[in-house]
Amino acid sequence: MAQSEQVMGNDQKWRAGRKYFLRSDRNSGIRMMAPALLVILLVTLFPILYSVVMSFSHVAITDNGFQIHLQGFKNYNILIHSGIYWHSVWFTIYYALVTVFVELVLGMLIALAIHNVERLKSVSLVVMLIPWSLITVISAEMWSYIYNGVYGVLNYVLISLHILSSPVTWTGHSVTAVISMMVADIWKTTPFVVIILLGGLQMISKEYYEAAYMDGANRWQVFWKITFPLLRGSIALAAMFRVLQAFGVFDLPYVLTGGGPGRATQSLAMLADQALFTNLHFGLGSSVAVSTVVMVLVICLLFLSAFRSLVEEGA
């Protein structure tokens, strides 16, 4: 009896000591992370909060700097009644939806092809990473040469194949400018989707496929019953990241089309840049940026909720 009580006492002392050391380690970790967390808060959280404050204010430029005067929802009221703003909203939305959908489809096809070819997998990955590794400004400049109406490669190829009878200024018309911009974006960012989906494919056990083929399933049935359900998480992750990037697109249209012709390819990011740094309407530009962030958050939450329900159904 005394021995068992001694064992229990030692166990309690051990547990108490373990809790003490764990608490001590946690407190030490928090103290070590505190400077980095403080820097992150100052670099990210403060500008965000400051932008929100500016969106509800009128910023007057003076000889000594600038003055902020709160004016409520006046800037947002201007946006709601602005046709230019709504054009940028709808352009950004359908640009994001079309490019992300095409990239997911192409990314899935390419990822499946690379996954099924073991011998050339490493070479294929290196080739796929070339477009993604290019700086967007350089990529946009390259595509501007391809689309050029005078010496562009695209016109030369299409005229040589007798598809066109005369050169076309691809970025000079609203419809062709939007399509040209989408093609450039899809070419650059599809490898990002491929890498994520290929990682998801490699995590799927081969035993599932072996069992399915033994039961007489064909490739199409295997894809819809095994591959696609198990890849929903990777697809959701790739789509979410690409939606975030597509809503913030700025450098590609800025270099490739300049937001034109007219305002045909003017994204929300370009509109905010024009209001903030060209027209010096800091309050109005901040309201454009804040409204964009709100739309992105809502879309991502809806997207994640929808995919979560799909994953639960497939589980």
Structural overview:
This protein is mainly alpha-helical. The chain folds into 2 domains: 54 residues; 234 residues, MetI-like fold, CATH 1.10.3720. It is built from 13 helices and 2 strands. Strands 1-2 form a two-stranded antiparallel sheet. Strand 1 and strand 2 form a beta hairpin. The longest helix has 54 residues. It is globular. Pfam families: BPD_transp_1 (PF00528). One of its GO terms (biological process) is transmembrane transport. Its main location: membrane. InterPro entries: MetI-like (IPR000515), MetI-like_sf (IPR035906). It comes from Alicyclobacillus tolerans.
Name its key features.
single chain, 315 residues, mainly alpha, MetI-like fold, 2 domains, two-stranded antiparallel ribbon, globular
Would you summarize the structure shown here?
The chain is built from 13 helices and 2 strands. A hairpin with a 2-residue loop joins β1 and β2.
Give the topology, please:
Blueprint: H1 2-55, E1 57-62, E2 65-70, H2 74-80, H3 83-115, H4 121-133, H5 136-147, H6 153-160, H7 174-202, H8 206-214, H9 219-230, H10 232-247, H11 251-256, H12 268-278, H13 282-314
Antiparallel strand pairs: 1-2
Helix pairs in contact: 1-13, 2-13, 3-7, 3-10, 4-7, 7-10, 10-13, 12-13
